[in-house]
Amino acid sequence: MKLLLDTHVLLWAASGDGLTSDAEARLLDPDSELLFSAASIWEISIKSGLGRADFNLDASVFRRALLDNGYLELAITGTHAAAVARLPDLHRDPFDRMLIAQATVEGVTLLTADAAVLRYPGPIEAV
């Protein structure tokens, strides 16, 4: 199963903190294909630059580590950008909205712990 991890889930997976044992088992399942979005790298870059303590890392190094650990990068396409306009207006975070659009367009499951994101229809699951 293809799983797109939202930014916080990516950070938790990398640090080993914050994930439930069930979520960790899903990520370690050999049948799981783990994806990260270019939107998450963008979000980390911006929030790290703003001095946010929860995003205190180098986005380039983090991206390389994800790739080195078998994660697949999902680029942002025009189709993804256009799909954002079709989402209900439940949440205004542009990074989350892009992840939701990408999951919907690509037919992959978005894993998140964000209650606002979980309100959207589509292939979204709580971790």
What would you note in describing this structure?
- There is one protein chain.
- The chain is an alpha/beta fold.
- The chain has a domain at 2-77: Rossmann fold, CATH 3.40.50.1010.
- Helix content is 50%, strand content 15%.
- The protein contains seven helices and five strands.
- It has helices at residues 7-15, 21-28, 38-49, 59-68, 78-84, 94-106, 115-118; strands spanning 2-5, 33-37, 72-74, 109-112, 124-126.
- The protein has a five-stranded parallel sheet with strand order 3-2-1-4-5.
- Strand 4, helix 7 and strand 5 (124-126) form a beta-alpha-beta unit.
- Helix 3 packs antiparallel against helix 4 (59-68) and helix 5 crosses helix 6.
- The longest helix has 13 residues, at 94-106.
Offer a quick outline of the entry:
Helices cover 50% and strands 15% of the residues. With 127 residues, it is an alpha/beta fold.
